[in-house]
Design brief:
279 residues, alpha/beta, two-stranded antiparallel sheet, 10 strands, 15% strand, binds NADP nicotinamide-adenine-dinucleotide phosphate
Amino acid sequence: MTVPTSLAFSMESGAIPALGFGTSPMTGGLSADTVVAALKAGYRHIDTGRKYGTEPAVGEAMRASGVPREDIFLTTKVSHENLHAGDFAKSVDDSLAALKVDYVDLLLVHWPNPEIALSETMPALAKAKMQGLARHIGVANFNIALLDQAIDLCPEPLVALQAEYHPYLDQAKLLAAARQRKLVFIAYCPLGRGRLFDDPVLADIAKTHGRSVAQVALRWLMQQNVAAIPFSSKPERIADNFNVFDLTLSDDEMKRIAALKRPDGRVANPKGRVSGGWD
Ligand SMILES: NC(=O)c1ccc[n+]([C@@H]2O[C@H](COP(=O)([O-])OP(=O)(O)OC[C@H]3O[C@@H](n4cnc5c(N)ncnc54)[C@H](OP(=O)(O)O)[C@@H]3O)[C@@H](O)[C@H]2O)c1
């Protein structure tokens, strides 16, 4: 079974590479060499955010790698405390300056903020696109109700929803909502921040195919036409995680992995930022 190497936007022309590289290490900083390793391994979708503090390293790596700017799909995000219009515009300017690029390919609202009206934030997001600072726009960590408000209030189409998704977290409702609204679903923490690696079902399926648990988890997302943005600090794992295009999981294996969902499966869970539930 082949899976698309990039997922087309339905709302506009364009597509997002299905496998990207995350750049938010849980501990320590991010070295530009790590991102260069990802670009050399074949990743052409790099995910950063103003909040991560990794934009300078990402920009340095893009320049050092020799990969042309236009071949890289670069995402950054505006964090929840900067969602008033003036703060939003400054955050975008700061991101572009830190990355040393003229535009990003995808600009996301990083988290909703119940204290700041989406009627102010969404026009600010659209303005960044209209000014040519972002080619495409979207949101992260929005539940379905907030997503609908965001779409209604945004003068430009949204193309993507980024949210946590991996075998331990059931995202069926949010994924269906994203599909209905023609948004590409981008899975963050696709390896459950490392929690999947001792799972016996994943280990068994990985053994059957002679592959790694990480490859099985990433392929499970990709066979659902979900994009994934795994992080690793280790060049051999960075390359291993990208090597999933020639693996096929059977329908039975897809179901066995889906059955691993747990009520406590969420690993990124800042309190109070999503009002009204997660989906
Ligand atoms: N929008 C949002 O709110 C949001 C929130 C969280 C994350 N994100 C994005 O999503 C990206 C990915 O999420 P994440 O970094 O939190 O978690 P993740 O990608 O699910 O897991 C990363 C962890 O898995 C380990 N790992 C990676 N590949 C491995 C392999 N092949 N074998 C064994 N261990 C492996 C890494 O350790 P080593 O470094 O030791 O390999 C690291 O500890 C972030 O970097 C960020 O860009 C977005």
